[in-house]
Amino acid sequence: MSVPKQVSQDRAWLELPGGKLHPFTRECRIGRSPEGNDLTIDERPVSSRHAIISAGQAGYTLVDQHSTNGTYLNGLLVQKPMRIKDGDEIRLAKVIALRFRCTREEPAPTTSDLQKTTTVLQDFEERTCWLLLADVAGFSHLIAKHGEEAALQRLQTWIAEMRPLIEGNGGMINRYVGDAIFACWPCSLSTPEVVLAAAHAIESYRPRAPVPFRFVLHHGSVFFTRSDVGEELTGQEVNFLFRSEKIAKRLGTRVALSQNAVRTLQLEGRCDSAGSSAVEGIEGYFTFFRLPRDSAGGGSGPGFAKRILLVEESSVTSDGFVRLLESERSIAVCDRAQHGSSARKLHAKHQPDLVIIDLALRTGETLALIGDLLEADPQTRVLVFTGLSDLSYIERALRAGALGYMLKSDPTDQVFDAIRVVSEGGMYITRQMAAAALRQLGGGHAGSTPRAGPSALSDRELDVFRLIGLGEPNRDIATALGISVKTVEAHRENIKVKLNLASAAELAAAAKKWAESAGDRSVR
Question: What's the pLDDT score for residue 365?
Answer without folding.
Answer: 64
